[in-house]
Amino acid sequence: MIKPAQNLVTQPGQRHALRAIALFETAKGLVAIIASLVLLSLANQHVRDFTYRLISYFHLDSDAHYFKSLFDYSDLMGNENLHTVVLLAWVYATIRFVEGYGLWKHLVWAEWLAAISGAIYFPVEISHLIQHVSVMNIAVLVSNVAIVAYMVYRLWRRRSEALRCSEALRNQQC
Question: Which pTM was predicted?
Answer without folding.
Answer: 0.72
